[in-house]
Write a structure and sequence with these properties.
By secondary structure, the chain is α/β, with parallel strands linked by helices. The chain is built from 15 helices and 15 strands. Helix 4 runs antiparallel to helix 14 and helix 9 crosses helix 14. It starts with a strand and ends in a 5-residue tail after the last helix. This is Gfo/Idh/MocA-like oxidoreductase C-terminal domain-containing protein.
């Protein structure tokens, strides 16, 4: 029998159960968890309780300060969620570690695996619209999912790099993947237009609160998150906050928000294509529209996703699809709808395919969807360059921030 793939799980917050549940159930024959690491012991204990309920053994826990000790004891696979990191110096540290250890790093870009996104890659690779010359990409986060970034640690740009790094890295990776290229230059504008105390005051709001817990004002706020009513969030955050002082239910109209909620980019790629991109974090619906213009026609896709709050319910509903369509418009021919493979589950059906790729038996993927640390860097560099452009008002060359190896 082949040796199981060994994983140490670093960070046991909301997204972690997606990985450890899969390993403990569907992939127990090929993979196992050997350790947990977090800044919070309560969250690690919760993860262990869920693991044992699934039939997995209790695993050792390590606080963040003991990370090096954990790695010394439990050599494990290197897989990271997106974004791989949030700035160029940390990227360089990752490159250095890869060079030093000669080990691979995987970045879990689950959107690559969604059937509709894979179909776009397939169509463009086949030359369905000739050479792609321009892309228009519009992404909407609604007042459930979008607002959630402004309740939690992401609201501080020092922690997250802002939504252009933390959320948009998914979207920038998709364009890199679809066009098989990398960003050359970025010009961006971004503002906080909706969330935050000042914007609420401009709209006539006079009653404010810092966090929903214990607030009478929050009871009448549709944006408030009541942790005590959601068992998973209560266990992960409300029951754990005495240990680290992290409040998961902060007001989206409070002080201290340093990220943008309205962003627009103009990106030029190394292959000559240009993308216009927008991200709105307070839209009435969740999803995206992307259009490709080419020398042989035009390809249009629209995807409407179901609303959700991270770890606020059934994770299979996170990013699940309400409706989607792909329309191919060749030059001098009638447009035609493109059939998309049926899929279920989170993130358009991409999560289940990603899990198989990570934890199952290795198989050849004709679409080359597995992402490396190089892909991880290329995706966040668009956002990092955009943040610099917002700060300076100038076009930013990506290579001036960090040259990514070819």
């Amino acid at each position: 029998m082949a040796t199981k793939k060994r994983y140490a799980l670093v960070g046991t917050g909301g997204r972690s159960s997606f990985f450890y549940t899969a390993i403990a159930t569907d992939y127990q024959a090929t993979s196992c968890i050997v350790a947990l690491c977090d800044t919070n012991q309560t969250r690690m204990d919760y993860a262990n309780s869920k693991l044992t309920a699934l039939g997995h053994r209790v695993v050792p826990t390590f606080l963040a300060a003991s990370f090096d000790h954990m790695i010394g004891q439990h050599q494990a696979r290197r897989v990271t969620e997106k974004p791989m990191t949030i700035d160029a110096p940390r990227c360089l540290d990752i490159f250095s570690a890869v060079d030093r250890t000669q080990r691979n790093v995987r970045v879990t870009f689950n959107y690559r695996y969604a059937p509709h996104n894979t179909k776009v890659f397939e169509l463009l690779r086949a030359g369905a619209i000739g050479q792609v010359t321009s892309v228009h990409f519009e992404w909407m986060l609604n007042t459930s999912h979008g607002a959630d970034y402004f309740r939690r640690w992401h609201r501080d740009k020092r922690n997250s790099g802002g939504l252009l790094v933390h959320k948009s890295t998914h979207h920038f990776d998709l364009v890199n993947f679809w066009l098989q290229t990398r960003p050359l230059s970025v010009y961006a504008q971004g503002d906080l237009k909706f969330y935050g105390k000042e914007n609420a005051e401009k709209r006539g709001v006079t009653a404010f609160y810092n966090r929903a817990r214990g607030s009478e004002v929050a009871k009448g706020d549709p944006f408030a998150l009541h942790l005590e009513t959601i068992p998973t969030l209560k266990a992960l955050y409300l029951d754990a906050e005495d240990e680290d002082g992290y409040y998961r239910d902060q007001s989206v109209f409070g002080d201290g928000i340093s990220i943008e909620d309205t962003m627009n980019l103009l990106v030029r790629y190394r292959n000559g294509a240009v993308m216009t991109y927008s991200l709105t974090a307070y839209a009435p619906w969740e999803g995206f529209r992307v259009t490709f213009n080419g020398t042989g026609g035009r390809l249009e896709m629209e995807v409407v996703e179901n609303s959700y709050v991270n770890s606020g319910g059934d994770q299979s509903l996170e990013g699940s699809i309400e409706k989607r369509s792909i329309l191919l418009r060749p030059l001098f021919e009638p447009p035609r709808e493109i059939e998309i493979e049926t899929s279920k589950g989170a993130h358009g059906g991409g999560d289940s395919v990603l899990l198989q790729d990570l934890f199952g038996e290795p198989v050849t993927d004709e679409y080359m969807r597995a992402a490396s640390h190089i892909d991880g860097a290329a995706s966040i560099l668009t956002g990092i360059a955009a943040n610099k452009s917002i700060a300076t008002g100038q076009v930013v060359l990506v290579d001036d921030i960090l040259k990514v190896p070819e």
